[in-house]
Amino acid sequence: MFNLPVSILIYISLIWVIEPSVARGKNVVSLIAFRDSNGRLHKRIAPEEIPHREPGSQAISNSLGSMEFRDYSKPSVNLDNILGIQQGKQQEFSAELFPLSLESKLSLVKDIQIFASYVRNDVETYNKICDPNEDLIIIAPTDRAVSQLSLKPWQFPNNIGKLESMGSTEEELDTAIQENISNFVRSHIVIYNDDKNSYKKISPECTLVQSISFTENERGTSQLSGDILLKKEGDAYYVASTRDEKFHIIESIENGSNGIILTVDLSLVWP
C-alpha cells in the first residue's frame, strides 16, 4: 500500500470535486434505437442512474480551466422578498447555514431524483445550476408527480409516437426528444434577479414568475407575462401553473448557495 503525500491526496480530491464543465457536457441523454416488426424506427431513453457525489467545494471550472467562486456580496434568493413579505430570520441566514450549491442539493433530495436526472440531460440548464453566480428557483416535481403524467416528459410536447409512425429519421427523433426534455426541465426553473424583472406581484397574496421556458419561447404572447404562480398563506408556500391556477403546497424548501429548490407534488407541464 503506497503512502501518498497529503498534498497529492488533496489535489486528487479537488480534481474529483471540481468537475470540469467539459465533463458535464457528457451527461447527455442516452437513447436506444430499434426497429419494430414493420421496420419502423423507435427511440427510447436508456435507464440512467445519477452518480452519487459527496457535498464539496463551491468552486467550479470554466471552459478555460480556472476556478470560479460565488460572489457572496450578491443577495441570496429569498421567497419572502419575491412575495413582498417581511423577511424572516430563518431565510435571512439560509445561505450561510446551507452553503451547498444547487448541483449538490439536487442529488441529495431523494424525492425528486427523476426530475434531477432530466435536469442532468439538459446540458445548458445543468451548467447554469453548476454556476455559483446564478440565482435560480427550481420548482422540482416529486417522483410520484412525474410518474403520474400520462406521457413521460421526453414524449411531449413533440409527439414522439407520431413522429415514429411517420418514419422520422433517427436524427429527427433525437432532436425532438431532446427538445421535450429541455422544455420539461426549463418549465420548472426560474432565473431570479433582484431588479424584479423575473417576477410580478399580481395580487396582495400572489406573485407571477417566469420559467426559463417561458422567457425563451412565450414572452410577449401572454398578458400575464409569466407561467408560474407563487403565494404564501400563514407559514406555508404554494405554487401553481397559470394553465389551471390550481395551487399545491410546497412540501420542502432546500436553500443552496446559488438558489433554492422547492419540492412540490405537481408537474407544472403536462400533455
UniProtKB/TrEMBL annotation:
FAS1 domain location: 99-268
Keywords associated with the record: Signal
Entry superkingdom: Eukaryota
Keyword Signal among UniProt keywords: yes
Residues spanning the signal sequence: 1-25
Name of the protein: FAS1 domain-containing protein
Organism placement in taxonomy: Eukaryota, Fungi, Dikarya, Ascomycota, Saccharomycotina
Gene name of the record: SMKI04G4690
